Amino acid sequence: MKSKNYRLDLLRMILSNQEHDSQQSLLQALKDAGLNSTQTTLSRDLRTLKVVKVMGANGKFYALPEGKNYRRVFSNNVNIAAEKPANANADESEMASICRQLATIGKQFADLGLQLTALSNELAKKI
């Protein structure tokens, strides 16, 4: 019987070198590497390694937290993992500038909405 550390190391190696979209696929990869495991054990090992599914170009797949494609995004208290695109060389200040521009556009739309509401109210009074 193989040790837990061996199993975790093998799982790390598989996840680092291949994309797997299901636990069944991971179980088969472990079996191909000479290790029989159960879905329950695999699920526990994935939790131990803090493995999550990330969105990639070909759909979702399992990724390790220390993997180059793994980053955590926190949105409305929901923890989301996402694949970092290979060409993600955008400078942070450039991204901040884009965010400011989008916020300005959003404010302009909100102001237009308020103006339309005021005009609509004035028109309703005249009718």
SSE layout and pairings?
Blueprint: H1 4-17, H2 23-32, H3 39-48, E1 52-56, E2 59-63, E3 70-75, E4 78-83, H4 92-126
Antiparallel strand pairs: 1-2, 3-4
Please tell me about this protein's structure:
With 127 residues, the protein is α+β, with helices and mostly antiparallel strands. It contains four helices and four strands. The strands form two sheets. The protein has a two-stranded antiparallel sheet with strand order 1-2. A two-stranded antiparallel ribbon has the order 3-4. The protein is elongated and about 85 Å long. The chain starts with a helix and ends with a helix.
List its traits.
127 residues; 4 strands; 4 helices; two-stranded antiparallel sheet; alpha+beta; two-stranded antiparallel ribbon; 54% helix; 17% strand
| Assembly state (oligomeric) | single chain
Between the first and last Cα atoms, what is the distance in angstroms? 85 Å
Question: In total, how many beta strands?
Answer: 4
Ranges with pLDDT <50 over ≥5 residues? 72-84
Mean pLDDT figure = 78
Short description:
With 127 residues, the protein is of the alpha+beta class. The chain has helices at residues 4-17, 23-32, 39-48, 92-126, and strands spanning 52-56, 59-63, 70-75, 78-83. The chain is elongated and about 85 Å long.
